[in-house]
Write a structure and sequence with these properties.
It is built from 17 helices and 14 strands. The N and C termini lie far apart (81 Å). 45% of the residues lie in helices and 16% in strands. The radius of gyration is 25 Å and the shape is globular.
Length: 424
C-alpha cells in the first residue's frame, strides 16, 4: 500500500529513493562492448541468440519484413500514429534554430551556424516492452533538425521478428533502416560500427540498466541524449481533485517498472486517504498489476503538505520527470515551477497525454536531473559552430590588447600570433 507521510517526515532527497539495490552491471557491459568491437556482427548474432533466443542470418530488417509488419497493424492504430506524429512535428518545428552573424562597421564578422548531426542511432526497447511512441519521439526531432541518416536498433522476438507496432511507427516517422539487435550490444554496435551496422555520431533512446550503462561507457566516442533512470511522476493536487483520477495517474507511471516512483503531494489528509483507497481499488484490474504493485509498495508515497505553495516547493526540490498540477488556476503556479521535465496543467491533463499524443516530447530527465537538463528536442540533433572574420586593419587595432592578455597567461606564442601580422 502506498505510504502517507506528513511533510517533513522524510528528507526530500529520500522521497524518490528506490527501494531496491540496483545491480552493478558495469563489468558485464564492458565485456559486451569489447566483444562487439573485436568480433562485430558475429558477436551481435551470438548475443541475440543468447539474450533474445533468435538465431539470425541477417541483422537488418528487409524491405519485405518491413512491409509485412506494417500490414499487420490495425488501420486505426496507423491513423492514430499519424495524428500523434503531426502533433509532435507541430511542436518540435518551433524549436528549430537559425544561425546568426554580427557585423561591425570595420568589417569584422562573428556569428554562429547551425549544422545537423549527420548520423543518429535510435535505440528502441523490444519484446514485452515495445514502445512505438519512442520511435516517434526520437526520430521526428532528428528529422526536423536535418539529420541525414537515422537508424533504429531494437531487439527481435524469438522468431527473429520486430514488433509490427515499432515498424509502423518507423514508417510514419520516415525511418527505414532498422537492425535486429538490442541491449548493450546494440549500443556498442552503433558507437563503433560493425560489418552491417554503421557507426553513428549520437545515440538516443531509453533502455534497461544494461543499455543505460552502455550509453554511459560509449559517451565520448559518440554523444548520447541522457542516462535515464526509472520513470517517476509527482502530482500536486488539492482536495477538489477527483481521487480516482489522481490514483489512475499515479498508477500510469507505477506500471512502467518495479523501480518507478509515483508520488502525490496534497494539502489534505482526507484526500490522501481517499487516493490511497482508490489505488488499492484500481490495482487488481491492471494488466501489469504485479509491476505496479511492487512500485507502489516500494516507492510510492503521498505527502501531506501545509498548502499548495509548499507542495510546489517540494516539487522543485525533487525535480521530477513528470509533474502534474491538479489545482485551480494551474497557470498561476507554472512560473513557480523551477525544476521539472514536463509539466501537465489542470485536472484534465494526465501525463499519458505527453507520452503519446499532445506533441511535447516524452524523453525526459529523471532522477533529479531536471535541475540542469531538458527534454529531448531538436537541439539534441544539431551542432553550433562559431565563426569569426577580421580584416587586417581591424586586427591591427586590437593586436596589442590580445598580446597583453596572452602574456598575462604566459602564452607568448599566442601573443606573437596576434602581433606578427602587424609587424609585416
Amino acid at each position: 500500500m502506498i505510504k502517507i507521510l506528513k511533510c517533513g517526515e522524510q528528507k526530500p532527497e529520500e522521497i524518490f529513493a528506490r527501494g531496491a539495490n540496483v545491480k552493478d552491471v558495469s563489468k558485464a557491459v564492458s565485456e559486451i562492448i569489447q566483444r562487439v568491437k573485436s568480433a562485430g556482427d558475429a558477436a551481435l548474432k551470438e548475443y541475440t541468440e543468447k539474450f533474445d533466443g533468435a538465431k539470425l542470418d541477417f541483422l537488418s530488417v528487409t524491405e519485405q519484413e518491413f512491409r509485412e509488419g506494417i500490414n499487420c497493424v490495425e488501420p486505426e492504430f496507423l491513423r492514430i500514429l499519424k495524428q500523434a506524429a503531426r502533433n509532435i512535428v507541430r511542436f518540435h518545428k518551433k524549436q528549430k534554430r537559425k544561425g546568426f552573424s554580427l557585423t561591425k562597421k570595420d568589417g569584422t564578422v562573428i556569428g554562429q551556424k547551425i549544422t545537423p548531426i549527420e548520423n543518429v542511432g535510435l535505440y528502441v526497447p523490444g519484446g514485452t516492452a515495445a514502445y512505438p511512441s519512442t520511435v516517434l519521439m526520437n526520430a521526428i526531432p532528428a528529422k526536423i533538425a536535418g539529420s541525414k541518416r537515422i537508424i533504429i536498433a531494437t531487439p527481435p522476438d524469438s522468431d527473429g521478428k520486430i514488433n509490427p507496432a515499432i515498424l509502423a511507427a518507423a514508417y510514419v516517422a520516415g525511418v527505414t533502416e532498422i537492425y535486429k539487435v538490442g541491449g548493450a550490444q546494440a549500443i556498442a554496435a552503433m558507437a563503433f560500427g560493425t560489418e552491417s551496422i554503421p557507426k553513428v555520431d549520437k545515440i538516443v533512446g531509453p533502455g534497461n540498466a544494461y543499455v543505460a550503462e552502455a550509453k554511459k561507457q560509449v559517451f565520448g566516442v559518440v554523444n548520447i541524449d541522457m542516462i535515464a533512470g526509472p520513470s517517476e511522476i509527482l502530482i500536486v493536487a488539492d482536495k477538489k481533485s477527483e481521487p480516482s483520477f489522481i490514483a489512475a495517474d499515479l498508477l500510469s507511471q507505477a506500471e512502467h517498472d518495479k523501480m518507478a516512483s509515483a508520488v502525490l503531494v496534497t494539502d489534505s489528509e482526507d484526500f490522501a486517504l481517499k487516493v490511497q483507497a482508490e489505488i488499492e481499488k484500481q490495482l487488481p484490474a491492471l494488466s501489469r498489476e504485479p509491476i505496479a504493485r511492487a512500485s507502489i509498495d516500494g516507492n510510492g508515497k503521498i505527502i501531506v503538505a501545509e498548502n499548495i505553495g509548499k507542495a510546489i516547493e517540494i516539487a522543485n526540490v525533487l525535480a521530477p520527470e513528470h509533474l502534474e498540477l491538479c489545482v485551480d488556476e494551474p497557470f498561476k503556479y507554472l512560473d513557480k515551477v523551477i525544476n521539472a521535465g514536463s509539466v501537465f496543467l489542470g485536472r484534465n491533463c494526465p501525463e499519458a497525454l505527453g507520452d503519446y499524443f499532445a506533441g511535447t516530447n516524452h524523453t525526459l530527465p529523471t532522477s533529479g536531473t531536471a535541475r540542469f537538463s531538458s527534454p529531448l528536442s531538436v537541439d539534441d540533433f544539431i551542432k553550433k559552430t562559431q565563426f569569426t572574420y577580421y580584416t587586417k586593419d581591424a586586427l591591427d587595432k586590437v593586436a596589442d590588447k590580445i598580446a597583453y592578455f596572452a602574456n598575462k597567461e604566459g602564452l607568448t606564442a599566442h601573443a606573437k600570433s596576434a602581433t606578427i601580422r602587424s609587424e609585416k
